């Protein structure tokens, strides 16, 4: 297919003077679609075409984001040199000067304010090698306990739930190739049609094969339109809905008794709790008619195989981890896991959402999913790194909690890598004020993002076209992104930047890497024997085999396509069910007379995360130039809001101004705003700072707001 497309592309061009092909992967979502970027020189200009490349995951498909990803990489706004803020303006400096500033300031901060006064904030868009190296940098070079990353705001609830129920967390317990053969699918809080478009054919094939699709979402989306049954619940009530489903499944005797007896702990307690619940009360809490709850439960329960997919709609809540656990309760009590065409997936948002959470960027974690508080794990990692285990810091705090420590003056220096926390964190006013208080702030980025604007020093990093490394995709498949495009200006790769800073800090001996592959080989050793065991993977194997699913503990191991076939990863081999109350312990942002509407947030197809990259792509930006508020026409009329008018949305934290968009597809008690825009359109200014006690995930999906049309512009 690549060849055919290339032939067609060439036939359309005239006067092509030369042509180059670059093999790469899309930098955006967790599908990590493989592609070939064609660069043609035509007279005095260059023309580009991205063509999807055959591979086991995306099978040659690309969505609109992947087709246009190169536009941000070639943007004139790319940072090309280190930039130091002098009297409020960024000025170009050399790398030598930049490293000197870092050495002086990092040393001064740790001398004046203590070892843990420096913090590191990472990303789930960087490669496995860089995520690994960043964790090592924090623990070995800076010796600080404060490191966390933006994946905390994305995947932590699902990871926590899977770890607690199964004893390990891999995005998908199966490979995507099993989806077409499953009989019933629950898509809970996931809009895959817009967020991971190239995954859709797997579900379309499942439907063609007769699978029954159940979608759970407060909005009608391109995904729910494909479903046979849509449960349009009130935002934040997923845990209660799962209780309703489980109650019917148990009462209608769709449980798998043998599976429960042999492989599950905690079923009786859960059973006693859910059968005591009243379906009418669940209907009231969730807003989903009980007949629909019954139908969904029966359809899922009666089929021989089934899969459950969750995403941020369920997870980004202050009881997100428990809500996911309740969906896992359904899965294990029906025995639909560890067998063909049955399993669970947390559909990862960020490109390396999976790999970046496995190798040491999390506050409490060491590579290979080892724990920083476990003595054996500490000893093992210390031996790999050649340090004394007592030198390893203990666990730190989560991403948003680090912002609190910055605000309180406990953390006074920050090293930020490829993330935009003043847009992506909840309570974003507070986060911005916190960041402004830092004594010294270094940001590594492709662009001057909204957060980088506040930095003292910005270091230019390479894009997906230039930086090689492995990424672990939505399946848990480790893929290799080749790099072939030269870096512009004086840009360096993330890993080179980390190594150079370590060197000037006197820790060069631990960071003497000359390629991403060398780092990967150390990561393999570091993960060996851990839950996320990459030891059996090599660049050569990944290239040859088109990606391999971990765990892969030996060089002759084929990788693990399906997890939990004979046992779960807890010591006794059993899955752990837990009672999940209908109402969360933590009080979610409540609607009342003053703030009468639920606000929920999410994505649009043409943008990615806080939009730092996609807003720089002309083709993508043109599709959605600004944020908007989706509102039901009945609700809009009630609040005198006309379609396409400017509206103020206010929560208990602040307000934003966006354009209204009438839509009959949303619940009348809910409005929706996408989160890809910054400043006065940053919806996270409205989100509360309550965190899930299990995993520290903020409650992005449920805020209480009021809305009003702006008529007097001078008042805003
Ligand atoms: Fe593939 Fe996701 Fe990129 Fe689209 S955004 S091309 S689905 S990796």
What does this structure look like?
The chain is of the alpha/beta class and 716 residues long. It is 32% helix and 19% strand. The strands form 7 sheets. It has a 7-stranded mixed sheet, sandwiched between helices. It has a 6-stranded mixed sheet with strand order 24-26-25-28-23-27. Strands 10-9-8-12-13 form a 5-stranded parallel sheet. Strand 19 and strand 20 (477-481) form a beta hairpin. Helix 6 runs parallel beside helix 16, helix 10 (238-251) runs antiparallel to helix 13 (279-286) and helix 18 packs across helix 20 (428-436). The chain is globular, with a radius of gyration of 25 Å. The N and C termini lie far apart (53 Å). The mean pLDDT is 94. It binds iron/sulfur cluster. The site of iron/sulfur cluster has 14 residues, from helix 2.
List the helices and strands and how they pair.
Layout: H1 2-12, E1 16-25, E2 34-42, E3 45-52, H2 64-67, H3 69-73, E4 83-86, E5 89-92, H4 95-113, E6 118-122, H5 128-142, E7 147-149, H6 156-166, E8 184-188, H7 192-195, H8 200-208, E9 212-216, H9 222-226, E10 229-231, H10 238-251, H11 257-263, E11 264-265, H12 267-275, H13 279-286, H14 290-302, E12 307-310, H15 312-315, H16 320-333, E13 343-346, E14 365-366, E15 370-371, H17 375-385, H18 399-407, E16 413-417, H19 421-424, H20 428-436, E17 440-445, E18 457-460, E19 469-472, E20 477-481, H21 494-504, H22 516-527, H23 539-545, E21 548-549, E22 575-576, E23 597-602, H24 618-623, E24 628-631, H25 633-638, E25 646-650, E26 655-662, E27 670-674, E28 703-709
Parallel strand pairs: 6-7, 6-16, 8-9, 8-12, 9-10, 11-22, 12-13, 16-17, 17-18, 23-27, 24-26
Antiparallel strand pairs: 1-2, 2-3, 4-5, 4-18, 14-15, 19-20, 20-21, 23-28, 25-26, 25-28
Helix pairs in contact: 5-21, 5-22, 6-16, 10-13, 10-14, 10-16, 18-20
The structure holds iron/sulfur cluster.
């Amino acid at each position: 297919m690549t060849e055919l497309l290339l032939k067609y592309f060439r036939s359309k061009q005239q006067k092509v003077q030369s042509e180059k092909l670059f093999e790469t992967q899309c930098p955006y979502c967790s599908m990590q679609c493989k592609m070939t970027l064609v660069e043609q020189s035509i007279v005095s200009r260059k023309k580009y075409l991205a063509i999807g490349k055959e591979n086991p995951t995306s099978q040659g498909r690309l969505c609109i984001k992947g087709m246009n990803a190169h536009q941000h990489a070639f943007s004139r706004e790319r940072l090309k040199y280190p930039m130091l803020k002098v009297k409020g303006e960024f000025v170009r400096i050399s790398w030598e000067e930049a490293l000197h500033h870092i050495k002086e300031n990092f040393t001064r901060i740790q001398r004046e304010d203590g070892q843990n006064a420096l913090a590191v904030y990472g990303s789930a868009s960087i490669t496995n090698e860089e995520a690994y190296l960043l964790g090592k940098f924090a623990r070995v070079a800076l010796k600080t306990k404060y490191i966390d990353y933006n994946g905390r705001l994305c995947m932590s609830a699902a990871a926590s739930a899977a770890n607690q129920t199964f004893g390990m967390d891999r995005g998908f317990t199966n490979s995507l190739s099993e989806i077409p053969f499953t009989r019933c699918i629950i898509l809970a809080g996931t809009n895959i049609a817009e967020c991971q478009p190239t995954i859709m054919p797997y579900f379309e094939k499942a439907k063609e094969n007769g699978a029954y699709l159940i979608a759970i979402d407060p909005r009608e989306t391109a995904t729910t339109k494909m479903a046979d049954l849509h449960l349009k619940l009130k935002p934040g009530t997923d845990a209660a809905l799962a209780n309703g489903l489980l109650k019917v499944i148990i009462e209608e005797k769709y449980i798998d008794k043998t599976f429960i007896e042999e492989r599950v702990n905690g079923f009786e307690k859960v059973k006693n709790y859910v059968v005591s619940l009243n379906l009418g009360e669940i209907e009231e809490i969730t807003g989903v008619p009980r007949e629909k709850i019954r139908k969904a439960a029966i359809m899922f329960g009666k089929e021989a195989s089934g899969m459950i997919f969750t995403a941020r709609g369920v997870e980004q809540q202050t009881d997100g981890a428990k809500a996911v656990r309740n969906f896992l309760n359904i899965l294990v009590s029906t025995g639909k896991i560890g067998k063909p065409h049955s399993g669970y997936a947390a559909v990862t948002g960020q490109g390396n959402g999976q790999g970046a959470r496995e190798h040491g960027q999390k506050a409490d974690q060491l590579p290979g999913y080892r724990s920083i508080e476990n003595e054996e794990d500490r000893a093992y990692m210390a031996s790999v790194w050649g340090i004394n285990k007592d030198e390893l810091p203990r666990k730190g705090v989560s991403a948003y909690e680090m912002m609190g420590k910055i605000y309180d003056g406990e953390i006074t220096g920050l090293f930020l890598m490829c993330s935009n926390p003043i847009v992506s964190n909840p309570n974003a006013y507070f986060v911005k004020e916190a960041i402004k208080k830092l004594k010294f702030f270094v940001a590594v980025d492709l662009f001057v993002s909204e957060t980088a604007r506040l930095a003292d020093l910005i270091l230019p990093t390479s894009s997906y076209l230039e930086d090689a490394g492995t990424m672990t995709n939505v399946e848990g498949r480790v893929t290799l992104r080749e790099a072939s495009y030269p870096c512009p200006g004086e840009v360096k790769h993330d890993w080179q930047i980390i190594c150079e800073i370590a060197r000037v800090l006197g820790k060069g001996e631990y960071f003497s890497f000359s390629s991403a592959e060398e780092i990967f080989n150390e990561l393999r050793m570091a993960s060996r024997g851990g839950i996320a065991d990459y030891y059996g993977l090599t660049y050569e194997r990944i290239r040859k085999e088109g990606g391999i699913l971990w765990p892969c503990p030996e060089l002759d191991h084929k990788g693990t396509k399906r997890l939990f076939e004979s046992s779960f990863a807890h010591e006794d081999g059993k899955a752990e069910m837990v009672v999940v109350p209908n109402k969360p312990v933590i009080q979610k942002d409540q609607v009342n007379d003053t703030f009468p509407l639920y606000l929920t947030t999410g994505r649009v197809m043409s943008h990615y995360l806080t939009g730092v990259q996609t807003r720089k792509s002309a083709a993508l930006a043109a599709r959605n130039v600004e944020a908007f508020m989706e509102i039901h026409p009945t609700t809009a009329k009630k609040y005198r809001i006309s379609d396409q008018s400017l509206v103020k949305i206010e929560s208990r934290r602040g307000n934003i101004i966006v354009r209204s968009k009438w839509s009959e597809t949303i619940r009348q008690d809910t409005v929706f705003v996408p989160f890809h825009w910054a400043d006065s359109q940053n919806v996270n200014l409205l989100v509360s700072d309550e965190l899930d006690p299990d995993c520290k995930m903020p409650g992005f999906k449920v805020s209480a707001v009021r809305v009003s049309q702006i008529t007097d512009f001078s008042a805003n």
